[in-house]
Amino acid sequence: MEKGRYRQIQHEGGNKVGDIHIFGAKQHNLRNIDVTIPRNSLTVVTGLSGSGKSSLAFDTLYAEGQRRYVESLSAYARQFLDQMEKPDVERIEGLSPAIAIEQRTTGGNPRSIVATVTEIHDYLRLLYGSVGVAHCPKCGREVVRQSAEQVVESILKLTSGPRLKIILYAPVVKGKKGRHEETLAEIERQGFARVRIDGTMYPVDELPELDRKKSHSIDVVVDRIVLPCDRTRLTDSVELGLKAGRGMIYVERLPDGDSSGKPEQLAYSELNACEHCGISFDELKPRSFSFNSPFGACPECGGLGAIYYFDEDLVVPDKTLPLRECIHPWRRAGHNAIMYYNALLEQIAKQYRVKLSTPYEQLAPSFRKRLMHGFDDDLVLPWRSVDKPFEGVLATLQRRLNEAEDDEHREKLEIYQSEKRCPACHGSRLRPESRAVTVSGRTIVEVMAMSVKDCLAHFRGLDLPPEMKDVHKEILKRLQFLDDVGLDYLTLDRPSASLSGGEMQRIRLATQIGSGLTGVLYVLDEPTIGLHPRDNERLIATLKGLRDKGNTVVIVEHDEEMMRTADCIIDLGPGAGREGGNLMYQGDFKGLLKCGSLTSDYLTGRKKVAPSTITQQPTDSYLTISGCAGHNLKNVSVRIPVGAFTVVTGVSGSGKSTLIDETLKRELMRRFYRAKAKPEKFRKLTGDENFDKIIEIDQSPIGRTPRSNPATYVGFFSDIRELFAQTEGAKARGYTPGRFSFNVKGGRCETCGGDGVRKLEMSFLPDVYITCEQCGGRRFNKETLEVRYAGKNIAEVLDMTVAEAYEFFGKVPRLANRLKTLVDVGLGYLGLGQPATTLSGGEAQRIKLATELSRRSTGKTLYLLDEPTTGLHFDDIAKLMALLLKLRDAGNTVVVIEHNIDVMRCADWIIDLGPGGGDAGGTLVCEGPPEKIKSCKASVTGRFL
Question: Which residues, 6 or more positions from 349, have their beta carbon under 8 angstroms from its beta carbon?
């Protein structure tokens, strides 16, 4: 391949020995380019969306660094690691071990929080487990050690009646894996007759064989006593139990013979006890503060901080339906179950004199409550031998869920559940004893609820014992790194799943800085995402610090401030997709301004992301949401003008996502589409009658498999297949449109299943994909490819770019109109059959926008976008703005959360939250046209505008 060359300026000083040299990079759309990355430098890779930035930085540079490292390991070790494909490149010289810090969240792990990801939680557990002061969770008094005599006194006070039976146990094993054969043998040697294993009583001569892979608890039965009793006997038994249980005994109060109550177990300890409440506690250890351990987790929620319950609003989604039809899960059950529930409802209606035809919303509130939660009196059912109370719809569903034996049945029921904060631990995830331990007057729960900024101030002021010096230092170091990368507003207990890709990337960056590695190649993907311009400075200083430690930092980035700071800039282009992949420029920032590339045009002002030429004057119609108080929002009320382009901005952590995504969007989705997610707390929402639909357009992929492509997503592939089915060749063979699909049998190549490639599994090496030898990568069989439309077969059409297809199908109005919208949004370079998995986030978002533009507009749609400029070059932003303003000009309302100054300048209306992040934010600083924001002295955004 001839090397694609545009003007190239070498890094000052030329190619130094030790620099990273890339020769002949051809990965994806890269055009056989040679690139030099200076060692121990900060290098920015920029260019249009789809120009090959990620292909160079991640799929070539990082992939080869990771691949070389993994290949250096043994075959045994390699099988446990994901190995990346070998990139299409001639050679790379001077490559260091590579670490990629990408914009991806941690997935949906509900146990992952900011403190666990950064390892701060581990050090907090060590701190509280070592020097924490235990308090009684009931009375709050400090816990003190008990003597054997005090334990005897406490036990004697247990009896309130004439007689009380108790059993004394000595715990010898607590939740440990193993068979514990030696422990059980020692118990028998000491003369004990009975033991309790995992809650079940056994004679010592009939002990079961324990599963060594499971955790077990073993308690020795010390004595059985009826109180009141001889004090000497009780004292001897308590002392024996404390000795066998290493300072701990359990006392089980047995119910009276005529009582149906359950045994109650009390703990007594020589280690920690509350004299006032008579409660003893286990010795404090780091595991006592882990919500992933049974020793620290809240027993109610298992350490999740939330519980799931059957929600009446989801069980009865349409309250206008009559009683006989309104209980949704009962209507979706099997035939026999539906018959049973119908009969049950008929009997309930008959017994309580309610008509089955009465709409649910018109039933008496007291009856609705009893129907959901259970009736107190017996329900007479003709097929039952014994009458008993009906447990209620919600309890019935919970029982069915508990008894479900397969995931399919379980998933069908779980859709009727909502999540709420655990009432036992109030979302803290820990058991009561752990929540009552303090260090310098603060519990671990209070510390975890602090923002990084407040936590940093708290630990700087702590005076800890000398043995905690290293722990203190590590906590401060990690908090400082989080503060340095602009995450000072995050609380330590914030769930990782709620973090944006940019926030998660900066957390990983902070973790890497803390590792103190040198001589490493770091590859980052737009670390400025989600950052207000105010916060960029701290992030840049952090990246410089990483470089100054002797590392090479390569960043895919579009931020002007980051480019100005970089030691070297690599600009790819001139276009995107097939029109990109060339090296436009390599060198410093001053040289970039003179090189004449598209990037330099915007940096010098020769081109601009022009503000809207016609600014919409806000009408009298507003979408108004008031009293928003979710997370850090402080009773915020905002107005969004209907038919205008509104930008919601503010520094990181000021509450933008909480206001728009978690409050406004969720409430609108519930009203319009009966969505499950509940909004954060707010008082009132008005003006939603101005809209007939709500659409969220994000940068998520348009498909998860290579079978999804622009043609299938936008919807014109079916039209193309119809055209082929109408040709003479297809009619003669009796082919239907389905014949021209690579997703179904008939027309596709069955050797590769319509993929065009075959996978060869290489055991300890990464899988290799080879072009299908049967179809040559064209995905269809020979007979299907013989059918032609205007001289082209179906494979040749899918291989066209959007621009080529627009010309080819110019005389087919339905197809041409849809293709034109893709050309208008700057995606003419994409292949019709290009796999969705190869599209960038910006390309996926513009495909979604083009799809919306191709539909007939009612002019009453509300579009919601969260940081749509993510991953976009200045020129991409200009095209995006033209699209959004086109939607607005059709009468629709567009609301975006954005930090980009050029987007703010295009706005008709700006909502600025702040003034700071976390607790320092959550208020409305200013709202109105851009001119009003500029003149607002309290607005940080106004200063940048």
Answer: 323, 355, 356
- Reply yes or no: is the peptide bond before residue 359 cis, omega within 30 of 0: no
Q: Of 699, 707, 780, 698, which is closest to residue 739 (Cα–Cα)?
A: 780
Q: Where are the alpha helices (DSSP H) in 774-894?
A: 782-785, 794-798, 802-808, 813-824, 841-854, 874-889
Q: What CA–CA distance (Å, rounded) separates 579 from 577?
A: 5
Per-residue pLDDT band for 268 (boundaries 50, 70, 90) equals confident
What is the spatial order of strands in the sheet that 89-93 belongs to? 33-37, 20-25, 89-93
3-state secondary structure of 22: strand
CA angle centred on 152, ends 151 and 156, rounded to 5°: 120
Each residue's pLDDT tens digit, 174-191: 888 899 999 999 999 999
Q: Which CATH number fits domain 307-417: 3.30.70.20, 3.90.1150.10, 1.10.8.280, 1.20.1440.230?
A: 1.10.8.280
The sign of the CA dihedral 792, 795, 798, 800 is negative
Half-sphere exposure of 51 (CA within 13 A, CB side): 27
- pTM, rounded to two decimals: 0.74
Closest CA to 742 of 771, 717, 714, 765: 717
Spatial contact of 778 and 747, defined as CB atoms under 8 Å apart:
no
The 8 Å CB, 24+ separation contacts for 701-706 are 701/836, 701/837, 701/839, 701/844, 702/836, 702/839, 702/844, 702/847, 702/848, 703/835, 703/836, 703/837, 704/836, 704/837, 705/835, 705/836, 705/837, 706/755, 706/835, 706/836, 706/837
d(CA 774, CA 788): 20
Instruction: Give the model's confidence band at 850: pLDDT under 50 very low, under 70 low, under 90 confident, else very high.
Output: confident
How far is residue 887's CA from residue 64's CA, in Å, rounded to a whole number?
A: 43
Under 8 Å between Cβ of 740 and 747 = yes
Closest C-alpha to 248, from 231, 265, 264: 265
Q: Is the peptide bond before 228 cis (omega within 30 degrees of 0)?
A: yes
**Helix or strand (DSSP H, E) at 582:** strand 582-587
Cβ distance 435 to 297 under 8 Å?
no
Q: What SS3 string covers 463-477?
A: CCCHHHHHHHHHHHH
Out of 1.10.3370.10, 2.60.200.30, 1.20.1580.10, 2.40.128.90, select the CATH number for domain 710-838: 1.20.1580.10
| Pairwise CA distance, residues 196 & 56, whole Å | 63
